[in-house]
Amino acid sequence: MGIPVGQYDKEIIRRTKELIESYEGEFTITLLMNSLLSLIVLPKEFSKDRNMKFLDDLIVDVDVVKTVISKKDFLFKEGVHSEKGKPDIPNPRNLDNLLRKIRNGISHQHITPISSGLNKWTGVILKDFNSNNHSQGLHIEFTIAELKEFALYIANSYLLEVKK
After folding, report:
1. Cα 12 from chain centroid?
2. In 41-108, which ranges are continuous DSSP H helix?
3. Which residues contact 23 (CB under 8 A, 6 or more apart)?
4. Per-residue pLDDT tens for 120-129?
5. 105-109 — which CB contacts under 8 Å span 24+ positions?
6. What is the pLDDT of residues 55-88, one digit of tens each?
7. Please, what is the Cα angle at 74 between 72 and 78, to 5 degrees?
8. Of 41, 21, 46, which Cα lies nearest the Cα of 31?
9. What are the distances in angstroms from CA 31 to CA 63, 98, 152?
10. pTM across the whole model
11. Is 133 exposed, middle or buried (0-12, 13-18, 19+ CB in 10 A)?
């Protein structure tokens, strides 16, 4: 089935979300990892054109993130927004900034699997590095369940706002 013009972002997110929620096969984790491009990267990229308000939420106020950001190895350097001729402005600790760093980690394949003793994935570590000085700006660990919940939260929030 084709996708109507102007609906690409909504339809890809909706269809991917539906696949993740209904799939019951052997490759659940593989499907989830492949789906992150649609469930996390795509909403971040299209949010500029869609003005998504939910991305302004501070990460400490987002329930699906609270457990993840409380882990001992969590690192989130907000960084700064620079414009030529203007003083740098610190980026907020909001969902938009976190999602940008997660998007970078996924897109640049800074993904490390966390495995059980049975050689099965139990989670992932996503990292983001500053392209100028190569310093680490993000280290976030998700269990597979947390990653799925987070990805579906982003997708659902995006789709809800697009309907408005």
Report:
1. 16
2. 42-50, 63-69, 95-107
3. 31
4. 889 999 999 9
5. 105/138, 105/140, 106/36, 106/37, 106/40, 106/41, 107/41
6. 999 999 999 999 999 999 999 998 777 777 777 7
7. 145
8. 21
9. 24, 23, 13
10. 0.84
11. exposed
